[in-house]
Write a structure and sequence with these properties.
It contains 15 helices and no strands. The chain has 408 residues and is mainly α.
Length: 408
Amino acid sequence: MRFDALSSAPYRRFWLGSIASVGSTQLYFISKAWLVFELSGSALDLGFLGAATAVPTIFATLIGGLVADRINRRSVLILTSGISAVLLLVLGVLDASELVRVWHVLLISGLLGFVQGFDFPARSSIFPALIQQKQMMSAVALNSILWQGSRMILPAIGGLLISLTDTSLIFFLCGLGFICMMIVLYSLEVAQTVQAKDAPWHEFNEGIKFVIHHRLFLTLILLSWISMFFGTSYVQIMPLFADLLQSGERGYGLLISATGVGSVMGNLFISRFQQSRSLGVMMLSCAVLAPCALIGFSMVTGMLASSAGVFWFTCFFAILAAAFSSVFLVSSMTVLQLKVPDTFRGRVMGIHSIAFSMISLGGLSAGALAAQFSAPAAVIIGALVVLSSVIWVAFRVREILKLDLSQQ
């Protein structure tokens, strides 16, 4: 297992510092959902929460990619971290004073989503300047482990804290986490050439055209979007599964943590195959297996919810789904990072990072389907869409199956 990107001192400092902000993001994600569920108990409101986060994030991400190519990325991250801290502290005050309403959570989630739309492209495009090219897959895997490892540990801790205290404490801690990230960013020096360029709208169009005219980029990005929207978005309605399994706040945290465990396992697995000549086959195989595991997750919760031991069986399928999804995501991001010219990096990675917003946006669709049918049925429908898309890509875009990074 190779994580040689940590041998770079600037990257190591950035990665360790990101633990605070990424951990805060994971904690406020589960806390917002649980707070809305407590306030209304509505599957549809959970869906609206996802949409309130995703729509402004997607809009801002398109602009954020352009900003990341035109303005110092370190400065962008300092600003986004500061604004996120303020918004979370405000939400904490509203929650602690018992003045909070669902619309407050939706509004602040929308503002946080807008800010994250500028944060994601800058974060995705800053770390290549901190490493050598040969360390790229290592850095991508480490970044993913940071996100998924925190999702493995922190939701369980968050669920415990919520059950012992309330969600307001989580929001205060998250605000402090973003403040810590600001301090780390101030200590970093990041080399970036910012030149006088064309009109912003022209550059934005250039980024879109670059993706559209390169079939490999277009296919991997669209497949990532579909996988997140129809597959991973089930985490947005996870409170419904916790309620179905009668596991409460702690069970909710453990279910989210199970997806984190699976994602870390996937990262550890793919890190052993950085130079594999079968990377494309492995990538699409895992993209097929992920929705299959989701179908198993849904069938277990839908048919055996009242059976003894079913909670841990459900966690097992959540781990599998997340592990397979993680292999695909890390592999595809590595391919994009290695093949994109640096002048387009912010815009292309900004477009790709919309995939993470698709998780929340897909929550609206999953919430609506869950309200109409059931939570397990909603997840099965989404999984079938993902499965069909991957199979179509495997037959129509053969160059993915031939991907080989051994010469990179």
